[in-house]
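Fold description:
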Amino acid sequence: MSRHDNILQTIGNTPLVRLNRLAPAGVEVYVKLESFNPLGSVKDRMALAVIEDAERRGLLRPGQTVIEATSGNTGIGLAMVCAQKGYPLVLTMAESFSVERRKLLRFLGARVVLTPAGEKGSGMLNKAMELAEKNGWFLCRQFDNEANAEVHTRTTAREILADFAGERIHAFVSGFGTGGTLLGTARGLKAADAQIRIVVAEPDNAPLLASGIAQQRDASGKPSASHPMFRPHLMQGWSPDFISSLTEKALTEGLVDEIVPVNGNEAMRLARELATKEGIFVGTSSGATLAAALAVARRAPDGSRIVCMLPDTGERYLSTPLFEGIGVDMNDEELALSRSTPGNRFDAPAPQPAAAVPAPVVAPRPEPVAPVVDAGAESYVAQVIADNAVVMFSLEWCEFCWAVRKLLARMDIAFESVDLDSVALQQRDLGTQIRAVLKARTGSPTIPQIWIAGTHVGGATDLFEAVRDGRMQRLLAQAGVTVAPDLDIDPTQFLPKWLHPRKAA
């Protein structure tokens, strides 16, 4: 294992892995696993390169806000780089991209401004430009920034050549989005061996490159309209609704030898087969690139060696059609396996073993003694209930307590949370004493326990039932707490996922 001064030093040097079950006989297909980058995609390389290039050229000042349009991976890479270097980050993103990308970005500290899906990639790019101009922020311009391509010439291409030192490479296959990976890697590979074929994959229903139709641009070189051949497609991060200047350079420099159309269903099939047959977890765009690589491999001469870019990880696609049909509950086969042995089943109690010998006679246990209720704890509970319209006695990390918190937050209701296991209530074991008070008051040992307007409502499911039958709203009204009259909420959506109804036995 190596040591690093910061996370950015771990970018690059990703592995090349040979496919053993998906490649045709007689041809070696290697995949470049860019998910091994620290934030899980090829865009980590570009994010660091663009920021460091701007720093060297004096275009980015310490503390200045960085802004960029992104389908997700560029933004995630930028969020990592900006977090490590201390730059605020704003990202614009079309609302059609997967929700897990938005959450990752915000988790990393970025602000995400969504743009209408109908305005496509052009809309999020235009929004980023507007915000940059208005606020004096640094715009990364990934679609035409030469630093985007240069990093792939300097790192990606050299890594591939070093891994095959002394061996011929028949073809390199990649999709395109910004065009940086395509242009930079192609430049590096072609400079070392002009016989290496550069193959570009693009959606079959959006053949921007294959059409041969030039991209319309304004006087500054910026795309002035969506490309006429663009159609919405499945491959997030691939082929925006315009041809970027970096992609155009790959064409005009004569670096592209072939363009292969890829069907979205084939992309999903191969992404799934990479997981189930090769143990490689990637997303739809990786499946699409592999589809093109296998098309090349099937007609390549025996002994050929093909390198295919797999740009990111499958975790970016959990909410997309790629995972449609991947169940949470047990299917029929799994239920049958569960029922095939008697223990630890969801649908039946575990069998009790027969006693081998007569059970010994045990003296009757004494009746439990009620806990001594501390007067200070009793006074504390009474005061908290009296002083607050809504009170929840809870545990900090209890899933049911979190379900109640999320419901109350969704209803915009302020409440007092008394966390019995908090550090503050561990003093003099006050949390345990309060719990004894609650048990004496309610007859229930479970947590959470909720009071509204001084009235005990019960636990989490009791509160949810009170929402459904209107009792909660009536109690809130008594306490002078208003709730939006048209608020329509199913409280069960906040329960832990493992509690949701299981498939019928």
Remarks:
- The domain at 1-215+229-325 is CATH 3.40.50.1100 (Rossmann fold).
- The mean pLDDT is 90.
- The chain is about 35% helix and 15% strand.
- The longest helix spans residues 146-163.
